[in-house]
Design brief:
By secondary structure, the protein is of the alpha/beta class. 26% of the residues lie in helices and 21% in strands. Strands 1, 2, 6, 7, 8, 9, 18 and 19 form an eight-stranded mixed beta sheet that branches. Strands 10, 12, 13, 14, 15 and 16 form a six-stranded mixed beta sheet that branches.
């Protein structure tokens, strides 16, 4: 938004919009490099929670630049297509900084440890040897780590200050931010001058229904992160002419969504370690008997779900019936899973350490609420769900036969997961497309500068984190977004500190 006024309520050299992981890292690095930094955060201090604080606390840690680069490039290719989602220069920047992310964190006292297992797509080049580390304290641990650095550097944080417009001069340079701030219980418009640069790091558009409907592949899609992510940064970027990219990208699996709450919940399909029904495999975590079916009562995918790429499988729109046959889908299980711990993740998300909701240990409260459907027979359950009863009965019976034989020729479930669904009550929960985050937003270059429609940097404007992130077709796996936040937070922090201060 063009401004001609010279009246400012506050002034800083660098103004960071959003105090999540990316904004926090950018502020830390800019301050370490001598810049005066002010963070604007729309949430109150007392209830501040971000996607990062609600996450599992993993950070993708490629062993070297070459591995990081080949894995990211493989994720970015569409088989049979020639056009890449993301250009090599920005992928290389991500790779270089992600490969040193672990060292950067540990050099500042971050407490992280190796988390077992490869990246999400180990069949791709670099995927099998790309590791991840986890913060002690998970997402809350990252938030505390950032807070400690911010306080030590005396970086200012203005809470309850919602950025609404980027302010530009006649030459199109971003020179400040207009915001709505709560001060002494009153809301007023404030104008904050940024003499070097503004950093856009407010997160994505997970709770902007209009943006989701227009940009995402499948609708509705519900998200399990912070409900403060309402697309503010996307609108501000569009207003100053930013080019958009990766708009239909998202980290998507299944989610539970209930009308009582704005956010969704991540399913915990396996439940806690349960050895009572497994002979000869004592202590092995298993998926208690369960399957996923579509609106026709049929299985359509392996229940060993790719945790961040499922949206591709859910977009199977039926142009004759004019429905998404897999939206919603249904989580089908029996008493065994019902008694095998909370049906949602309790180490991350709304029911995790941020405690936006306390899920009952035995799922009893949720059963009473009607969130869990139950019946004495599979046929009765089908009637409650509105799916064809004959189909659901056949599907469950077929799965149970696979369990007897110890092999799933349909979708390749592992033998230890082949636990029959045969112990009433038979239960179900609705599954919607959902997950932690969107990818899309303003396009940026390898320095983190936001680009206009012609591909040129918008002077004075940088971006990092989830809003306009580097991921295109496929997400690299657990810890990918947090690795992106640390990588481009550092890149942006270094570059805004190099900007010349303009009075």
């Amino acid at each position: 938004m063009l401004t001609r006024s010279r009246s400012w309520d506050k002034t800083a050299e660098v103004v960071v919009i959003g105090y999540g992981c990316a904004g926090g890292v950018a502020a830390i690095v800019a301050a370490e490099n001598g810049a005066e930094v002010l963070i604007l955060e729309k949430q109150p201090r007392e209830t501040h929670h971000t996607n990062t604080s609600m996450a599992g606390g993993s950070i993708l840690t490629p062993p070297d630049v070459t591995t990081a680069l080949e894995y990211m490039q493989a994720l970015d290719r569409i088989p049979g297509g020639g056009t890449r989602w993301t250009d090599d220069r920005i992928v290389r920047a991500w790779a270089e900084y992600s490969a040193t992310g672990k060292q950067w964190i540990e050099s500042r006292g971050g407490d992280i440890f190796l988390s077992p297992g490869p990246a999400e797509h180990p069949q791709l080049p670099g995927g099998a040897v790309t590791t991840r580390h986890r913060f002690k304290g998970m997402g809350i641990g990252i938030a505390r780590f950032l807070d400690d650095q911010i306080k030590a550097l005396k970086v200012g944080v203005s809470y309850e200050t919602r950025a609404t417009h980027l302010l530009t001069n006649l030459r199109g340079r971003v020179i400040g931010v207009e915001a709505r701030a709560v001060e002494n219980g009153q809301t007023r418009t404030v104008r904050i001058r940024a003499s070097r640069a503004v950093v856009l790091a407010p997160g994505g558009f997970e709770f902007d229904e209009v943006a989701k409907l227009n940009y995402l592949r499948v609708y509705p899609t519900y998200f399990t992160g912070s409900e403060a992510l309402t697309g503010d940064g996307l609108r501000m970027a569009i207003e100053v002419g930013a080019q958009l990219w990766h708009m239909n990208g998202l980290s998507c699996h299944f989610a539970f969504k209930f009308p009582e709450y704005p956010f969704a919940f991540s399913p915990d399909f396996p439940g806690r370690t349960h050895i009572r029904y497994v002979k000869g495999e004592e202590g092995v975590p298993i998926c208690s008997g369960s399957i996923v079916v579509d609106r026709d009562g049929k299985r359509f995918t392996s229940e060993n779900i790719k945790a961040h790429a499922l949206s591709y499988e859910l977009t199977n729109f039926d142009t004759h019936r004019l429905i998404y046959p897999r939206v919603p889908s249904y989580f089908i299980f029996d008493r065994r899973r019902l008694e095998n711990g909370p049906l949602t993740a309790v180490t991350s998300g709304p029911a995790g350490p941020v405690r936006l909701y306390r899920w009952s240990a035995d799922n009893g409260k949720e059963l009473e609420k009607g969130w869990i459907k139950a019946a004495d027979t599979v046929r009765g359950l089908a009637r409650k769900l509105g799916v064809p009863a004959d189909n659901l009965e056949k599907t469950v019976a077929r799965f149970n036969r696979h369990c007897e034989k110890g092999s799933d020729p349909d979708f390749g479930r592992r033998p230890k997961e082949l636990i029959p669904i045969d112990t009433p009550p038979y239960c179900a929960m609705l599954l919607w497309p959902g997950g932690p985050s969107t990818y899309g937003g303003p396009r940026r270059n390898s320095k983190g500068q936001v680009l206009n429609a012609d591909g040129r940097p918008i002077p004075g404007l940088y971006g990092c984190g989830e809003l306009g992130c580097v991921f295109g077709m496929l997400y690299p796996g657990a810890g990918g977004h947090i690795a992106e936040c640390f990588a481009f937070g550092r890149i942006v922090g270094e570059n805004v500190a190099r900007e010349r201060s303009r009075e």
